[in-house]
Design brief:
209 residues, Sulfite Oxidase, Chain A, domain 2, 6-stranded mixed β-sheet, 11 strands
Length: 209
């Protein structure tokens, strides 16, 4: 029994050492996917669901669920890092590339920021250049299976280079703007940017930047 426990510990330590360059400071690896969100899991009705892009774009768009699911599909792989201190490596995502959306709506030159709108009035905010990266997508599948409702079904944003609260669950739209506006957790004390490699966790750190 003691030998088995020691072996498992050695295996965990060896794994951590092997991927040390992929784990930001202050993070611990997990094979699980903790469920963290504010409020209740929303009900999904495919007949009423839509996804909209508004604001400073040449072509504002609205897709029904069927129309959105017919958009070109991409597959990506990434690590994710939660501000609460866990990291989960080697996630495979399927969904619609952010750049596919950007190509269709054509943001105007003044569109420097994006407000991400989700169910229940939840928002988060990103500079347009942070959103418009090739690895970012609007995902509906994870590791070969449809997202669980707890993890954002039918659609969640995935922005893996920032702390995972920026990858909002239950996304319903993007609003392109000239001026920034803090989102839900950003108003409640989280960092406005959220880089895990420099541990941008809390808003009080912004004054020290």
């Amino acid at each position: 029994m003691a030998f088995d426990w020691l072996t498992r510990r050695q295996e965990r330590e060896a794994r951590r050492a092997a991927v040390a360059d992929r784990v930001p400071p202050g993070q611990e690896l997990t094979d699980k996917w903790p469920v963290l969100h504010y409020g209740n899991v929303p009900r999904f009705d495919a007949e009423k669901w839509d996804f909209q892009v508004t604001g400073l774009v040449a072509h504002p768009m609205r897709w029904s669920y069927q129309e959105f699911m017919a958009l070109p599909r991409v597959e990506t792989a990434s690590d994710i890092h939660c501000v609460t201190g866990w990291s989960k490596l080697d996630n495979r995502w399927e969904g619609v590339s952010i750049r596919e959306i950007v190509r269709r709506v054509l943001p105007l030159p003044k569109a420097r920021y994006v407000i991400v709108h989700a169910e229940g009035g939840y928002t988060t905010n990103l500079p347009f250049e942070e959103l418009n990266r090739p690895e970012n997508l609007l995902a509906y599948r994870h590791n070969g299976e449809d997202l669980e409702p707890d993890h954002g079904w039918p659609l969640r944003l995935v922005v893996p280079h920032l702390y995972f609260w920026k990858s909002a669950k239950w996304v319903r739209g993007l609003e392109f703007r000239e001026q920034d506006e803090r989102g839900f957790w950003e108003r409640y004390g989280y960092h406005n940017h959220g880089d895990p490699w420099t541990e941008e966790r809390y808003s009080w750190q912004e004054a020290n930047a």
